[in-house]
Amino acid sequence: MADRKQTLRLGFEGHLRKVDVTLPATEATPWDADSKLEIVGTEVPRLDGHLKVSGRAKYTFDVALPGMLWAAVLRSPHPAARIESIDVSKAEGQPGVKAVLAVAKPGDTLRFAGQDVAAVAAERPEQARDALALIEVRYTPLPFVVDTEGAMRDKAPRVHEAPITERRTEGDEPGKAKAGGMQGNVRALPPNERGNVDKALRESDVVHEATYVTQVQTHSALETHGVLVRWDGDQSMTVWASTQGIFSVRDEMAEVFGLAPSKVRVITEYLGGGFGAKFGASAPGSRLGFIAGELSRLARAPVKLMCDRHEEHVCTGNRPDSRQAVALGGRRGKLHAIDVVAHGTAGIGTGAGVGRNAFSLYTRCPNARVRAHDVFTNGGPGTAMRAPGHPQGAFALELALDELAAKMGVDPLKLRLDHDEHPLRSMQLRQGAERFGWDELRKRSAQLRSRNTRVRKGVGVASSLWGDFGRANAAVATCSVLRDGTIELKNGVQDIGGGIPTVIAQVGAEVFARPLSTIRVRYGDSDYGPSVGSGGSTTTSSVTPAVRNACEQARVALQELAAKQLKVPAGEVRWDGDGTAHGGGGSITFGQLCKKIDGEAIVATATRPATYGHEPMAFPGSKFYQIAGAQFAEVEVDTWTGVVRATRVLAVHDCGRVMNPLTLRSQINGGVIQGTSYALMEERVLDGDLGRMLNPNLESYKILGARDVPEIEVMLTEVHTGANNTGAVGIGEPATVPTAAAIACAVYDALGVPVRSLPITPAKVLEALGMIPGRPA
Amino acid sequence: MLRMPRFSVQTPRTIDEVVQALRTPGARLVAGGTDLLPNIKHRLEQPPVLVSLSRVRELGDVVVDEAAGVMRIGARVTLTAISEHAQVRERFPSLARAAGVVASPLIRNMGTLGGNVNLDTRCRYVNQTAFWREALGGGCIKSEGSVCHVVPGGRNCVAAMSSDCVPVLISLGASIVLVGSQGRRELPLEDYYLADGVRHTTRLDDELTTELVVPLPRGPRRSHYAKWTVRGSIDFPLVSVALRFDLEQDHVSAPVSEAHVVVGVLGSKPRRVTRLDDVVGKALDDPSLATAVAERVHQQCKPLENVPYEAPYRRTMLRVHARRAIEVMVAAG
Predict the structure, then answer these.
(1) Quick check: A126 and B6 CB within 8 A?
(2) Exposed / middle / buried, residue A777 (Cβ in 10 Å: 0-12, 13-18, 19+)
(3) Among A220, A235, A702, B55, which one is most buried in terms of CB atoms within 10 A?
(4) Which of B260, B242, B252, B243 is nearest to B220 (CA)?
């Protein structure tokens, strides 16, 4: 069928306009600014909320099968070593032990403390752990380096002998180009440049140069990584996985064990968080899927392998650190040049770039250049973490911008507004500033500074950009209207925690004008049809349009059935608000109509096409909508102790159409909390002499507690982008991009001196104030 | 998830039975378990037998003995109960406060005062998984090894005494009562602790703490407990200072007749700050008193790199928090 043209009313408050889009013939007419929706966009509590709070929701950790064994992994105690020999024989025959596996082999080089060496499956988890102690491994320790600066030196031990190719997952930002060659442990990422930055810096009347440092953050999802593997015969298996990408688990297990993907079933009913580290059957630094699958094959019993918290910190990924040398040039009150040279370590892995912020946010600045580098160290691999690179990049850029603004004598908010081309973000900045009380609060900060008070207050603002990376043809949804009136919606998507099943149900309820109680959502199982991984903030925008298309198609079939019953042409059937069909003076209720279904159900299956709109502005260099956001933060700093409290955050965000304000606000709250924690507390501490993480637990790896959470206000600026038929775009990542940056800017406002290093610990604040001597870098 | 090794549990009903049960080699007492069980998960201890106090009725009371001039607090009284007890709040506000800022409500509901005074010492190189410690080349003095990672070359364990209640109880002049096969003994709590993180109390293996005895104030007094942690709850103290000032009259402008300041989270033993003689006689609200006390605390207390956050920073903070605690007392009137 031919494509069709459709005129939609798109844009945002005060900026709505008619836009023509081209749609595939099978595509439902997109919901736009003129659509009046009854259930989508309302505050529907999570359908499974009661199961979660009452403990009845079963996570991977909770799944138990008859005869199931528990696995444990022996991990490298050395940050770098060669394996001379492995003898697993003494572990065999230990009480309860059913299978033992040498994962590494003699001659292998281990590159971080925590790497897989061997594994055991036993009847009880304690037995598996105890048996590990009997595995004899001879190591030859090798020179190692765990700190980023040390690894950059000429004589530093080489972490990898051969060039490394990038490991990418669905958690990574799409569309990045390949990297360049390696020099020592340093590997250049593709640079970005517009204009002539060197010349522009020479032309500038004010230049600000400084280095900004961010720490390694671990994902620390509440539920650790883990899989449970059951072989169903020798050519198929069922895998329960704590994953944010069911189909990535399927594909990896199929590849590792030489199975057809259709023979691997993956189930993730509930998931205790992911944040980018849970793609594939393995963790980034541990072959969990292979180990569990192989032990299960050897033992001929289901095997469960769940990481403990130590393993979770050390070998399941992290947000790389960064050292960003930033130079900003100002000319005639305007931003004239942005130059960033960044180095960061993803340990033995790749992906220490610093995001799009410096290059793509303040696009009215004519000259910009970002050169980023991966620095290899003997640490566990970094991996995608909630907006990879962006919080790091935002922190350096936004704080540097405030420092430049101070030197130029302009208000930092004005400097941002002057150089941001996104009309919605500009509105967010203006409306946010008004609601936040920006002007008055900046004056208050200045007064407290000039009076040199013990307790200071400060405010800061930072922006977020992300893309609508909702995927075409990736999610295939099935809608079944059953004879008993139930509407069953199926898709193999996992719920990372955002609440996608509830939103799927809302879409079904909307299309059929039926109560939510009549909608049943089946998800979390690869048998329910292809879907996307929850990465790149794409779940809702990939899945809900497919669900809607399936529902609309089923509804067309139902309408034909109604027409037959009412004896009118299908085009004359009208539906009312409770799903009753009217036509030719007669009517038939939804329940009565369903009973007339020939066979068990009307079933329709559909996906979504590529994006067809990006009103009002595209993500740089793409046809995807650019998601906008801005956050304002207020802090209180005790200048005697250096303790910073984030007291208030105003988060202004768009995510296209608001599908459910409750689940949306939850995601934004989570993004702000995680960003505040990153700003003030979280830090992986590695001991340079031992090459090990000193705080691989949740006692000394500090994550913000309930008492430390700022008051969070969420302001939603809905936008009709025309990207897809529901209008949903993502929010998970945009919500955490600017938080730490805004807090750092607020600390600068409070103190009058910047703290250019995350986390902003009390000691760093006192150093910045000159009250205690600085430590050597 | 970390798993516990197997052990058996005994549930005696009387103190005598407890003492009897403790004769099993390696037996350990458990009351709330909030310190012991994580340590067992970390394989810092692998006791074959846990002797539970859950069925012992005798140790659960708070009694004010006016005739003897003391309050007796049973070892099994929970930290929540202490923090909420009307008599404790009235007579020993710094103790109520210390008990009320331990960890989190859930832990305070389980944790007991006896457990808190016997809390094992803590160190960033010790309170880790067995695998982690093994990778240091075989742990340290306090765990499986023989070296110290905090004080290179050190032969003595300097793991930190991290109890919130201990510095306060010492500042209040409390004594501890222990019962064992050799009978009952009572000693000043201050003398109970040793400068050895491996064995940081004088408790014998078959002794159990039965009660803490705190002398009732004989005159006007102001006391406070200053605790700093990274987070607003759950954390062990990083700065821990207990202060007590006895006054000649019941107002903060009155002269101080006795001053006691005790600091925790340094090494394995709480430190009593000395040379406070010159503050005696000064009014509590005399700013020079706060400065002098803060200065003594800073001079005499040297935090180590045994807990998170930089030791030099924590030392600087001792001065700030000591001074602030006095300001809080003065402001409260």
Answers:
(1) yes
(2) exposed
(3) A702
(4) B252
Instruction: Output the pLDDT for position A777.
Output: 43
| Helix (H), strand (E) counts: chain A | 18, 35
Architecture of domain A471-610: 2-Layer Sandwich (3.30)
CA-based nearest residue to B242, from B125, B138, B94: B94
Q: Measured between beta carbons, which residues in chain B are less than 8 angstroms from residue A61?
A: 1
Query: pLDDT tier at A179 (50, 70, 90 boundaries)?
Result: low
- ipTM beyond 0.90? yes
- Residues B140-169 as b/e (b if ≥16 CB within 10 A, e otherwise) read bbbbebebbbbbeeeeebbbbbbbbbbbbb
Q: Is there a contact between B132 and A692 if contact means CB atoms under 8 Å apart?
A: yes
A396 in helix, strand or coil?
helix
Amino acid found at A140:
T
Q: Which two tokens stand for residue B170?
A: 């010492």
Cα torsion through A35, A40, A41, A47, rounded to 10: 180
Q: Where are the domains of chain A?
A: 471-610
Write the secondary structure of A11-60 as one string of H (helix), E (strand) and C (coil).
EECCEEEEEEEEECCCCCCCCCCCCCCCCCCCCCCCCCHHHHHCCCCCEH
The Cα–Cα gap between A724 and B40 comes to 55
Q: Are B128 and A126 inside 8 Å of each other by CB?
A: no
Q: At what angle do helices A739-751 and A438-450 cross, to 10 degrees?
A: 40
- For A124, nearest residue in chain B (alpha carbons): B3
Q: In terms of CA atoms, which chain A residue is nearest residue B310? A: A763
Segment A663-686 shows an average pLDDT of 97
Task: Please write the tens of the pLDDT for every residue from A529-561.
Answer: 999 999 999 999 999 999 999 999 999 999 999
**Chain B residues touching residue A641 (CB < 8 angstroms):** 228, 317, 320-321
Nearest to B224 by CA among B246, B244, B247: B244
Query: What is the four-CA torsion angle of A46, A52, A56, A58, rounded to 10 degrees?
Result: 100
The CA distance from A690 to the nearest CA of chain B, in Å, is 7
- Size of chain A in residues: 777
Using one digit for the tens of pLDDT, what is the confidence trace for B14-39? 999 999 999 999 999 999 999 999 99
Question: pLDDT tens digits for B276-311?
Answer: 999 999 999 999 999 999 999 999 999 999 998 899
Supply the DSSP symbol for A226.
Answer: E
Which residue, among B273, B172, B214, has the nearest Cα to B72 in the 3D structure? Answer: B214
Query: Which amino acid, one-letter code, is at A536?
Result: G
Cβ neighbours around B1 below 10 Å, total: 11
pLDDT tens for each residue of B118-134: 999 999 999 998 888 98
Which residues, listed in sequence order, are joined to residue A456 by a DSSP beta bridge?
A: A637
Q: In chain A, whose CA is at the least distance from the CA of B134?
A: A77
pTM here is 0.96
Intervals of chain B under pLDDT 70: none
What is the token pair recorded at B310? Answer: 């930089």
How far CA A115 is from CA of A119, A287, A321, in Å, comes to 12, 9, 20
> What tokens does A583 get?
């036509």
Strand partners, A335: A330
pLDDT above 70: residue A775 = no
Q: In terms of Cα–Cα distance, which of A353, A318, A319 is closest to A176? A: A353
pLDDT of residue A1: 63
Q: Which residues of A touch B4 (CB under 8 A)?
A: 126
Phi, psi for A559 (deg, rounded to 5): -65, -35
B125, B232, B310 member nearest A763 (Cβ) = B310
- pLDDT at site A482: 98
Instruction: Please report residues of A whose CB lies closer than 8 A to that of B234.
Output: 705
A with B: how many residue pairs have Cβ under 8 Å apart?
86
